[in-house]
Amino acid sequence: MSSDPWIWVGALLTLMIFSFLYKDNPFYKFGEHLFVGVANGYYIVFYWHNSLRPNLFEPLGAGEFIYLVPLLLGLMYFTRFIPKVSWLVRIPIGFMIGWGAGLSIPALFQAEVLRQLEGTVVAPSSFTNPMSGIWSLIILVGVICTLIYFFFSKEHKGILGHTSRIGIIFIMIGFGASFGYTVMARVSLLIGRIQFLLGPWLGLID
Amino acid sequence: MSFLFFHCLPVTFSFVLPATSSASSPGDVKAMDKPNDAGSAIQIFWTRASNDSLVENYVIMRKAATDPSYQRIGSTAGGVSTFEDDGVTDGTTYTYLVASLIKGMQYPSEQSNNVTSKPQLFHTGRINVLAALITFTLLLAYFVYKARSGKNLYIRQIAGLAAVEEAVGRATEMGRPILYVPGLGDIDWTATIASMNILGEVAKKIALYDTELIVPNTWSVVYTVSKEVVKESFMSEGRPEKFKEDYVRYVTEAQFGFAAAVNGIMIREKPATNFFVGKFWAESLIMAETGAQTGAFQIAGTDSVLQLPFFVTACDYTLMGEELYAASAYLSREPVLLGSLKAQDYGKLMSLIILGGLSILAFLRIDLLYLLKVQ
User: Fold this and answer.
1) Which among B39, B83, B157, B211 is placed 20 to 30 Å from B260, CA to CA?
2) CA-to-CA distance for A128 and B240, rounded, in angstroms?
3) Which whole number is the average pLDDT over B317-326?
4) Which residue has the higher pLDDT, A106 or B33?
5) Number of helices (H) and strands (E), helices first, in chain A?
6) How far apart (Å, rounded) are the C-alpha atoms in residues A60 and B218?
7) SS (H, E, C) B265-314
8) Are residues B110 and B188 in the same domain?
9) Residues B249 and B181 in one domain
């Protein structure tokens, strides 16, 4: 059994969180609140050292006064606490949403529309061997049927109904594969925690 | 000897340029400004030495017009014939030498052409992205105009959304709150923006039904937006006095700290209905499973493909992918949202035509696939 007090802290906190599997209890509540509190404290320090100081205050200190603009936008968030001028908070929010949309929309068109279409088109070169050709065709059919499933302008009846049903089958097969893959990853996380409890804490395994 | 031998160690070289190159020297060194970039980069191309298989490295040297001599700036393995110099100053004229390194000896090429780097305002390799954006914007403008002029734009029923009214009513009847988790994405995630639209509509129903609401947040900006959205919904329904400041709460940015806190809320405050709408990662199953155990009616919506299976298995209704974006239009019937949904549908129709059309043309030996290529 470990003599390191920090290993004990880690092990006891792990068990406190695991105790939720039985039911909500004071140990879980303690672990949960400690986690939230520590995380918030950590992020305040993290953002000071990794964002505010190097990206705002240091450039300002060096005389780069253009950084007054983000400082002003940031300070506008605090106008929420002054009812008379609380409407000012909408300016940085609008800036953030506009910036986010402007940045992501062309990138999405590029990565998730044009490149996906390019990769899905079936050409004679897809048939370098028969199996790769068949898989390419299956992908093409899957993409077409799935796109039709997400068509909202028409009722899913007739040919649209049939193809969208095939689409949902493709989607569910994809979900099944994804489910299995992710469960494996979660189980490996659990194994990591159990190894920590049995190894560094209890010393039962190397 | 017509060329100068020198070892690879010196960083600065001062020598007479070779009159002619040897079989061991790279040839035809050309330098050009890197196209479609933000400047400060030059591409160098050369013909490999005829005994390239013996070349250990090609050493690249650069000289600005004002420099007295060439300086080594990098190297590549043998068999390579390009190099990108991203350490140049825009507007300065440079020339380059490439030397092959064979058994510790360097065989330099003749100097390259003069070259100057500069930024390009327009990326010519992405004209197709621009064309797609313009097409989509025109479709959007057209359908928004149609929706605003009173034209009824049809949207098929989406099962999860038809249940929103039922979900709010259930919580009211049970006298228990509604939990709305807007995901763990920041405000610049499309799914979070969609979630805010849906939150607005859900909050309007909550204001009418006089039900309690809990909106835990993981990002400070999303927290601020959520609060504004809920407050505005209560105002638009004429019940601003019913809005409570602690409806919308900030929890933490820590992913699993947030999941632990939401689990605690579900167990202790026992919401009758849980909404999980937005961007989710590994915490999705933890929260949805806990919600299922408490017996809450659950509606989820996300475009996180890896998390959708967990929501599908643990929730009563799940909005998958684009259904999430369609949801806000469906619920609000806002002309802008309806128009954008219609434009998306026509965008999908165009994608189908492109997919089918280019595949058929490819088999007719008409290759138009290059139209989709993006640099």
Assistant:
1) B211
2) 66
3) 91
4) B33
5) 8, 0
6) 29
7) HHHHHCCCEEEEEEECCCHHHHHHHHHHHCCCEEEEEECCCCCHHHHHHH
8) no
9) yes
Residue A191 falls inside a structural domain: yes
The single-letter code of the amino acid at B116 is: T
List the single residue in B with minimal CA-CA distance to A157.
B156
Q: Is the pLDDT assigned to residue B12 strictly greater than 80?
A: no
Residue at A187 is within a domain: yes
- Please state the domain count of chain A: 1
Per-residue pLDDT tens over the stretch B111-162 = 999 999 999 999 998 999 999 999 999 999 999 999 999 888 888 888 888 8
Q: Which residues of A touch B129 (CB under 8 A)?
A: 106, 109-110, 114
Best CA proximity match to B70, nearest among B14, B136, B137, B138: B14
Which residue in this structure is represented by tokens 């569910």? Answer: A172
Residue B19: both structure tokens together = 């009159």
For B26-52, the pLDDT digits (tens) are 999 999 999 999 999 999 999 999 999
With CB atoms and an 8 Å threshold, state whether A140 touches B355. Answer: yes
B171 lies in some domain? yes
In single-letter form, the type of residue at position A1 comes to M
Paired residues of B250 in beta bridges: B217
Q: Do B188 and A178 touch (CB under 8 A)?
A: no
What is the longest distance spanned by two Cα atoms in chain A? 71
* Helix, strand, coil distribution of chain B in percent, nearest 5: 45, 20, 35
Question: CB distance B374–A115 less than 8 Å?
Answer: yes
pLDDT at position B57 over 50 = yes
Q: Do the Cβ atoms of B184 and B256 come closer than 8 Å?
A: no
* Cα A163 to Cα A91: distance, rounded to the nearest angstrom: 45
Closest-CA distance, B189 to chain A, in angstroms, reads 7
Instruction: Tell which phi-psi region holds residue B28, choosing left (phi > 0), alpha (psi between -120 and 50) or beta.
Output: left
Tell me the nearest-neighbour CA distance from B120 into chain A, angstroms: 18
Give the CATH number for residue B294: 3.40.50
Strand order in the sheet with B42-47: B27-33, B42-47, B82-85
For residue A179, is pLDDT > 60? yes
Number of domains making up chain B:
2
SS (H, E, C) B65-122: CCCCCEEEEEEEECCCCEEEECCCCCCCEEEEEEEEEECCEEEECCCCCCEECCCCCC
List the CATH number of the domain containing B31.
Answer: 2.60.40.10
> Between residues 217 and 236 of chain B, which touch chain A (CB distance below 8 Å)?
220-221, 224-225, 227-228
